[in-house]
Amino acid sequence: MRMMVNWNGRITPLEEACLPVFDHAYLYGDGLFEGIRIYNRNIFKLDPHLQRLYDGIRHLDIQGMIGYDELKQRVLETAEASGAQNAYIRLSVSRGTGIGLNPENIDQTPNVMIAITRLALYPPEMYETGLRVVTVSTRVMTPDSLDPRIKSIGRYVSNIQAKIEANRRGAGEGLMLNAQGYVAEATGDNLFIVKDGVLRTPHPSCGILKGITRATAIEIAQERGIPVVEDWLTLHDVYSADEAFLTGTAAEIIPMVELDHRPIGTGKPGEITEQIIAEFRQRVCEVGVRIGAGVR
Ligand SMILES: Cc1ncc(COP(=O)(O)O)c(C=O)c1O
């Protein structure tokens, strides 16, 4: 596979790509992004990712964005140009180009970047043994400031702070709470717990990104007859859970076996967790938008 970048419709190898220094996302974090995976030449859940992106574009009032089908076509063409079988797609949109906060004073033509690359979030052995997680002091943003449901670039400064804290404390991941102290999500993943055979996950109103992998885990559980509850959870719910796992496009699905030095359940990946992971791994290779098939 060759790492390729599509910058505003022009495809080049990664090393040749460059962007304007006054890009508004570079200057102020004023933009949105998506991370998407290609498995076996299928782009997994491409439409839900693009729909979430366009929801964010409406929310942030980014003007003049290219149409949905054109964007989808660019993603497919760039993936095709890279020859990727399995890869990670980073899609970023910024409001435009120009210095100064005021959008009225800049060229409000969105810059659209699609990169076909690779990303591994955690070492492979952690998918077998499970992640040790700590609760971090950085809280998720409140929705009256910047709604965590928007995958905005600027928002990730706090997630990076949370990740640094988890790293310094020797943990595989950091769990972030919301301003009221309820459990929200990890720095780049959603959280699930299992208690008495029921799958529980923070409700979208708790301050989470409504993850597409999260939706897939919910789908798989419901198909298997496992009850799923979206709720407001406290740390007590996680400490006393039978099993836990994290979900995300970059992370995929990974067991979580410890929080704040307390083992979760047996301290090993749980049975329901493993069933969901197995089904997820099968599903990602079978479904998705086929590269080379054009926009449907
Ligand atoms: C903060 C945060 N939460 C959750 C997720 C998982 O979302 P998805 O499954 O759509 O990748 C991500 C990853 O994009 C994320 O950055």
Describe the structure.
With about 300 residues, the chain is of the alpha+beta class. The protein has helices spanning about 25-30, 45-60, 70-80, 125-130, 155-170, 210-225, 235-240, 270-285, and strands spanning about 5, 10-15, 30-40, 40-45, 85-95, 110-115, 130-135, 175, 185, 190-195, 200, 230, 245-250, 250-260, 260-265, 290. The protein folds into 2 domains: about 5-120, Aminotransferase class 4, branched-chain amino acid transferase, N-terminal domain (D-amino Acid Aminotransferase, Chain A, domain 1); about 125-285, D-amino Acid Aminotransferase, Chain A, domain 2 (Alpha-Beta Barrel), CATH 3.20.10.10. Helix content is about 30%, strand content about 25%. The two termini are about 25 Å apart. Pyridoxal-5'-phosphate binds near residues 188, 209, 214 and 249. Pyridoxal-5'-phosphate binds near residues 35, 188 and 209.
List keywords for this structure.
296 residues; alpha+beta; D-amino Acid Aminotransferase, Chain A, domain 1; D-amino Acid Aminotransferase, Chain A, domain 2; 2 domains; 7-stranded antiparallel beta sheet; 8 helices; 16 strands; binds pyridoxal-5'-phosphate
Overall pLDDT level: 96
Give a list of the ligands.
pyridoxal-5'-phosphate
Helix and strand composition category: alpha+beta
**Class of the largest domain, according to the CATH hierarchy?**
Alpha Beta
Can you tell me the CATH superfamily of the largest domain? D-amino Acid Aminotransferase, subunit A, domain 2
Q: Could you say which overall geometry the principal axes of the C-alpha atoms support?
A: globular
* Biggest sheet descriptor: 9 strands, mixed
Q: What is the CATH architecture assignment of the largest domain?
A: Alpha-Beta Barrel
**Helix/strand order, N-terminal first:** EEHEEHHEEHEHEEEEHEHEEEHE
CATH fold type of the largest domain: D-amino Acid Aminotransferase, Chain A, domain 2
Radius of gyration: 19 Å
Strand content: 25-35%
